[in-house]
Amino acid sequence: MKFYSSSWSTIRVGFFYLGMINLILPGVASSEVVYKTIDEDGVPLFSDKVNGQHERVLLPKSNRTNFFESPQTKMIAIEEKEPKQIYRVEILSPPIDHTFRNSEKVSVRINVRPRIASGSGHQTRVFLDGDLLSDYGSSLNFQIRDLERGAHTLEAVLTDMADRELARSEVRTFFVQKASIFNRNRFNN
Description:
Blueprint: H1 2-29, E1 33-38, E2 44-47, E3 55-58, H2 71-81, E4 88-93, E5 99-101, E6 106-113, E7 123-128, E8 131-132, E9 141-144, E10 150-159, E11 165-168, E12 172-177, H3 184-187
Parallel strand pairs: 5-12
Antiparallel strand pairs: 1-2, 1-3, 4-6, 6-9, 7-8, 7-10, 10-11, 10-12
């Protein structure tokens, strides 16, 4: 009978350790990326480590709970699931295909709907011919001076604090026409 009780306590201790390992290892031992290799005999081998010529196999996330997840992590996950605000960015000025003559300033007006809340960290970035106009910051109304003659494009992009794009306007094309030093009289009439 003594043998029976010591075996039973050994089994209970074994189950205790097995239970502890099962609590600790689910987050550590599992991997969502597996590599598949084929050995010389054509048998596929699967591993979580890269070994020779391999093919990456993505596994779906398992249906398990992470016991070590902090409440703050859960809050972030809840915030990410909240419905995102849909923004619309529109260039109101300059008019489409408008021609500015001589040293005329180009007035730029941008409309963002719904309005950006102050302190949200959202920024409006304006691009002229593909280059960021950093001189005007996040202003929605400003004037561009001293543009070279020719066709120009304007585009506005709304980004959040993490620099992710929330909305983008259509590209607006406009033209700048300046008097040539060879034909000044033609434009000054």
